[in-house]
Specification:
about 425 residues, alpha+beta, six-stranded mixed beta sheet, 19 strands
């Protein structure tokens, strides 16, 4: 059974392998857990790399850490570069671009993805105790909204990275369809299910006919009634909350001297600081120098001083991480106090549920509307949906799932494994494609 399935997610990834009898299982990837953060840390100091835990040096390349070890290396202050949300660059011009890592090191974004997939393949091979040269990869319904050419380019880029990572045969399956296959394993009679797969980068929906009779069929095209999705999910929630709660403290939304009608401070730098894969672009020397000279654009010089501390001390990733933690706490009903002493002694902001929901309200509305549009595309009234199957990390947010459940009030809401349902379903599909 020389195949596997990989759920390459914006926030987390998983691998499924099969034994010689075709029995599928999730691979323990890190600390015995079957999911691993989609994160890579590149060490720019050889001595620190030798001291750190969980360091890999694939094929003599630059030392790096993956997953939780990557995040820990960043938090512990090792010299280097943390890269997350790798999936977000697919379909963009960044894929072929080279990014600076510091200390004279640089790497292509595509090579970062290739290295991460190679790490997952080798973990799968260690678990399966045999080479793996065939793979089913999950993909969102749309890598890129409303741009078929860029969407096709994104899949082609991911396929090329998988091939460079050592897979000779690469297939794809929509992630919400895979989640439907996972849900189908527990279904005892025919149903129409709306799958809501909401992760870190995209919110994807599929209407699928499932049941004991259906799951025996190799060709399931007639059972897939509609697919739809939007490029809005957990990282977008983080961005909106950071722009609403944290970045105004460093000048977002500020104006220059002159009172009413004064020119606004340019906002591009703040949007980039709130977007994981663009944060590092804010630290380019020319950009830092440009903003250092813009002190006269700020009516409050203190805001400019704080912004320069963010840029000069490279605090953007730390602010993003603090925002993510605050979002999780606030949406669970516990206000989060975000300490910002690195910007100014005693500076802090509290993110509570009301603030967080106001910041992401428009995004939540668009996600729910996308779910409704999916059912409409299937030619069905909402009452025909028997079950709403929820999966993906962002379905852990009660405000989001409550809105979806209320919109499909007659459907039974079922919470799948938020981080593993897609991978499990991709494994089901891989066994049908590659299994004997």
């Amino acid at each position: 059974m020389s195949y596997c399935a990989i759920d390459f997610g914006t926030s987390n990834s998983s691998v499924v392998v099969a034994d010689h009898q075709g029995n599928r299982r999730l691979v323990p990837l890190e600390d015995g857990q079957s999911t691993i953060p989609t994160a890579v840390f590149f060490f720019t100091d050889e001595l620190e790399a030798a001291q750190a835990h969980g360091v890999h040096r694939p094929d003599g390349a630059m030392a790096r850490a993956y997953g939780r070890a990557a995040v820990a290396a960043y938090v512990d202050g090792y010299a280097g570069r943390l890269m997350r949300s790798l999936k977000s660059i697919l379909g963009s011009s960044l894929a072929e671009q080279t990014t600076d890592l510091g200390n004279g090191y640089a790497v292509r974004y595509l090579d970062v993805i290739t290295g991460y997939l190679r790490y997952l393949r080798r973990a799968g091979e260690a678990s399966a105790q045999q080479p793996l040269d065939r793979v089913v990869l999950g993909r969102p319904v749309f890598f890129v909204d409303d741009d078929a050419e860029r969407d096709a380019r994104a899949q082609a880029t991911l396929a090329a990275a998988a091939q460079a990572a050592g897979f000779g045969d690469v297939r794809f399956q929509f992630e919400p369809i895979a989640a439907a296959f996972d849900y189908e394993q527990q279904v005892v009679h025919e149903q129409i299910v709306l799958v809501a797969d909401i992760g870190g980068g995209t919110s994807d929906f599929s209407v699928v006919r499932v049941g004991p009779g259906q799951r025996l069929r190799a060709d399931r095209r007639d059972d897939i009634l509609a697919n739809h999705g939007v490029h809005i999910a957990g990282t977008d929630f983080d961005r909106q909350i950071e722009l609403t709660a944290l970045l105004p403290l460093v000048g977002f939304g500020a104006h220059g001297p002159g009172g009413q009608g004064a020119r606004p401070v340019p906002s591009t730098i703040y949007h980039d600081l709130a977007t994981w894969h663009l944060i590092n672009t804010c630290y380019r020397p020319r950009r830092v120098a440009e903003w250092r000279a813009m002190v006269d654009w700020f009516a409050e010089p203190e805001l400019h001083r704080r912004l320069m501390r963010v840029l000069e001390l490279r605090l953007g990733h730390e602010l993003a991480a603090k925002t993510e933690a605050a979002k999780i706490s606030a949406c669970a009903g516990t206000p989060a106090r975000v300490a910002l002493d690195a910007l100014a002694p005693g500076l802090a902001v509290t993110v509570d549920e009301a603030l967080a929901l106001e910041a992401i309200r428009a995004d939540l509305d668009r996600i729910v509307e996308a779910a409704v549009q999916t059912v409409q595309a299937a030619g069905l009234p909402t009452e025909r949906i028997d079950a709403l199957y929820l999966t993906g990390g962002s379905t852990g947010m009660a405000p989001l799932t409550e809105r979806l459940s209320a919109r499909f009030a007659t459907a039974r809401s079922v919470q799948g494994d938020r981080l593993a349902s897609v991978a499990t379903g991709l494994g089901v599909h891989a066994s049908r494609v590659f299994g004997t």
